[in-house]
Amino acid sequence: MPAFEGLFTLVESALGQPAAQWLRDHVEVPDALQHFNWSEQAVHRVWLAEALNLCLLHKLVNAVPDGLRYVEEQAQQGRKVVFDHGAIRTVDWPHNGQLPRGRQAFSRILEPLGFTDVRTYPLTKLNMTGWGYRQMDLPEDIAQFFVSELHPGRFSEKFQQTVSRVVASSLDPLHDEHVHILERLHLTQHCSLQEANRLLPALYRAFERQHGVVLETDYQCLLNESAEMAWIATEGNSFNHLTDRVSDLQACVTQQRELQRPMKDSIEVSASGRVMQTAYRACTVTRGLIDAGGQLCEHSVPGSFVEFIERKVDPETGRIDLNFDSSNAQGIFKMTDSKA
Fold first, then answer.
1. With b meaning 16 or more CB within 10 Å and e meaning fewer, what string describes 235-252?
2. I need a labelling partner for 187 at 20 to 30 A (CA). Which of 53, 161, 281, 334 fits?
3. Are 311 and 244 in contact (CB under 8 A)?
4. DSSP string, 158-189
5. What is the pLDDT of residue 335?
6. Which residues pair with 285 in a beta bridge?
């Protein structure tokens, strides 16, 4: 089986054939993947990294109607989107049910796939820290992960107690079999195709909410001190956004505003001036919360969104600037703040 055919067959193992075909038609897949092994016996980690990213992009655009419309419109204009990065939020707290603490729940997934946390980003205003995870085999081609941790210890005691109640029911989507495959990937950079087909659906499920339904009173307590933790309470470890890398951000923004899309008011510019970002405002989703009488009541809360980024060349390296920026990130995070 040709490698690129195999990639989308691998995606089918998690999403099914129609979704795999949609991704083939709408998302740019790097040609450089073909330089890495693909066989029944040895699938290189880059293929799993790309397959996971494709699956997660598909999940997000189907959860964000404006995002799906945007990607479809790009295809109508003859352009496939270029997946630059996705972002997830975790909780740096010991009472996390079956899940490892904070970003460790994802470093155990990302590192075997070739991702390394190349830089730390203080998100001081949010009482969070972010890490940029870059795929080291194809750093410019495979989408990065921006993984953030919220630090409950910096909030009130009541807030901390609420966080404990919310995340204590978390289940681990990875079983022993998946962990063993990841360990072998980490050591050898390869696994068999059969193992890849078993592993990918589990990795895909890891990017969801792993804890149970939240009490209304707990949600409100979290929202009073941290919009980000309130978001985690309903959305968990889902992508809070994914990003299309565009060649001209201002032109993209102008077009989206002409179409009356729900754009952020301004463009965030990094301290270097080489990374520029803006975004749609988060979509609104309906989530169940448990009221004082123990009944499940539906509430409208912020969901996820699509971001747009332009990366310029770093004159010192001659390569595009793949870094993030703490100020940019904190501005973008406001998209999921229901109070903003």
1. bbbbbbbbbbbbeebeeb
2. 53
3. no
4. HHHHHHHHHHTT---S--HHHHHHHHHHHHHS
5. 83
6. 301
- In this structure, which amino acid lies at residue 218? D
Tens digit of each residue's pLDDT (9 = 90 or more) over 41-51: 999 999 999 99
Q: pLDDT at position 183, please?
A: 97
Alpha carbons 273 and 267: distance in angstroms, whole number: 12
pTM over 0.90: yes
Half-sphere exposure of 290 (CA within 13 A, CB side): 9
Tokens of 94: 């010991």
Q: What is the per-residue pLDDT for 333? A: 86
d(CA 41, CA 47): 14
Domains of the chain: 3-336 (3.10.180.50)
- Report the pLDDT value the prediction gives residue 328, as an integer from 0 to 100: 85
Positions in the chain short of pLDDT 50: none
User: What is the sign of the dihedral through the CA atoms of 89, 95, 97 and 103?
Assistant: positive
Using alpha carbons, list the distances in angstroms from residue 71 to 57, 238, 306: 11, 19, 10
pLDDT recorded at residue 146: 97
What's the pLDDT score for residue 2?
Answer: 66
Strand, coil or helix: what is 243?
strand
Residues 6+ apart with CB under 8 A from 144: 84, 85, 86, 115, 132, 133, 134, 135, 322
Neighbours of 3 (CB within 10 A): 16
Q: What is the DSSP letter of 111?
A: G
Backbone angles phi, psi at 319, to 5 degrees: -115, 160
Q: Do 87 and 153 form a contact (C-beta atoms < 8 A)?
A: no
**HEC-encoded secondary structure of 26-60:** HECCCHHHHHCCECCCCEEHHHHHHHHHHHHHHHH
**118 burial via Cβ count (<10 Å: 0-12, 13-18, 19+):** middle
Distance CA 291, CA 294 (A): 5
Residue 156 is classified by DSSP as -
How much is the pLDDT for 331?
87
Amino acid in the structure at residue 259: L
Query: In this structure, what DSSP letter does residue 282 have?
Result: P
Residue 17 · residue 163 · CB < 8 Å = no
